[in-house]
TrEMBL record:
Coiled-coil regions listed: none
Transmembrane segments: 20-40, 60-84, 110-131, 151-172, 179-199, 257-276
Top-rank taxon: Bacteria
Protein name: ABC transporter permease
UniProt KW S-adenosyl-L-methionine keyword: no
PANTHER family given in the database record: INTEGRAL MEMBRANE PROTEIN-RELATED, MEMBRANE PROTEIN
Keywords for the protein's UniProt record, in alphabetical order: Membrane, Transmembrane, Transmembrane helix
Lineage per the UniProt record: Bacteria, Pseudomonadati, Bacteroidota, Flavobacteriia, Flavobacteriales
Record-linked Pfam families: ABC2_membrane_2
Keyword Nucleus set for record: no
Amino acid sequence: MTKLLKLEYYKNLNYRPFKIFTILYFAILIALLFIGLVDFDLFGGTVNLKEQGIYNFPEIWNFTTWIVGLLKIFLGLIIVFSICQEFGDRMFKQNTIDGLSRKEFIGSKLLTISIFTIISTVIVFAITMFLGYQYSTITESAKVVQEMFFIGNYFVKLFTFFCFLMFLSILLRKSVFVFLSLFVLWILEGIIQSIALYVKSQHHTGAQMVEKAQNTFSFTKLMPLESMSSLIPNPMMRLKAAQILGGKYEFHYPTESLIACLVWCAIFIFGSYWILRKKDW
């Protein structure tokens, strides 16, 4: 393991985009977690997310993990560029000539993915605890840990997404093709979801459609991107303003999405290894 870590370190040490995007990601991540302390001018009025309750326990776990989850593409850029560069510069071929096995190559990438995911998760956890105890109106132990599972979901979401990008990078070997494929899949999943929702919600009112979508199982939740997204639902309905307007927030733990993510992780990892073994670079 130490050998693989050193190999990844030296590979990426002199790769400028790797350092730039890494610094950018963690800087923006930390800044976003403090977004609730800033006042926003909206429709002629001032909105402060802290006053809307985003830092209250237990809701804070949902808000922080959802907000920083939007940044995962920044860290994804690092992984994609790093892997695609190795194939573009024929570094992978040289490493295999020097004795690096395909299993070790996958292992080194998984180590990098794991380290990024762990660091990101620890930062989110630490800052969430700080902000919660600093600004939450509720600090009872039971409330503090009530929705802490969102941190675990965040870890799984990030790790699955990065494994997916690793798979696409090894399959396509060009960063532009990787992101184009990601965009196309996102569009396709959106179309499939819309069709499934339309079929399921015929003869229902708007409110019934939303309730049916939230409370019934759909095969669309098993799709790669959707299963990751379902782990941390959009928390905007938990804002005080949304509740005043009659918004209703209901959450059922997405067990099927969690299982789907773990299965997709295994598929992406073994798929990446299978492609490396079958193709001669």
